């Protein structure tokens, strides 16, 4: 498989040469554990067909089960081959996801946002481009989710909460009403944040923590109630 074959196949058909379907073509960037979960969420949605998975590990173009495996350096060309093609960055690490967005340099409209059919998202909530809301998650009235955010399985984002770009709300964690989680914040598995608390940019909240007071940008906080144990430079 060479690059020209890949590009002609990407411009409207699957790797096996079948013609394009009613499903919009999608490229997933990231083939780690999180990437494979995201791929499952995409398949459950039945709105997109995955035409390619891009990962730095894929140095040669290959095709497996009708899906191309390519280097991220190919993504831009693939996107330009078909104006319907969308991209989703499925990298769990918030900083690496953020730097991949810089690397690809795509406009926001080329990113898909995915809401699993078993998630519950209010019609009065906003989900930004490149964000994923996984199975069992709830996003309630007035919540605002930025771009390239992960709302992981079973997480709850309550009314009027704000979640900044590149944040990750881990499985079964809860942001109560009016919470603000800053850019790149990572809320650990099963953590809770009480109403109106502000979590600074690039904070890390430990698994199982209960956050009852604002956290400064770059803090790592653990426990019940959560206490700051580390303070980092916030530059991603
Ligand atoms: C908070 C966290 C990031 C800290 O990781 P770290 O920076 O490597 O810190 P360490 O493991 O060195 O732990 C530092 C101290 O905090 C304690 N600690 C770490 N995580 C804790 C947690 N979740 N709750 C309570 N205490 C915790 C450690 O026991 C250690 O205490 P000690 O100094 O008395 O020995 C990590 O433990 C964590 O909880 N990550 C969340 C992971 C997650 O939910 N991922 C989602 C994947 S979908």
From TrEMBL:
Coiled-coil ranges (or none): none
Domain of life: Bacteria
Matches recorded under SUPFAM superfamilies: Trimeric LpxA-like enzymes
Residue stretches making up the PglD N-terminal domain: 26-104
Gene3D superfamilies in UniProt: 3.40.50.20, Hexapeptide repeat proteins
NCBIfam families: NeuD_NnaD
Protein name per Swiss-Prot or TrEMBL: Acetyltransferase
Organism: Paenibacillus oenotherae
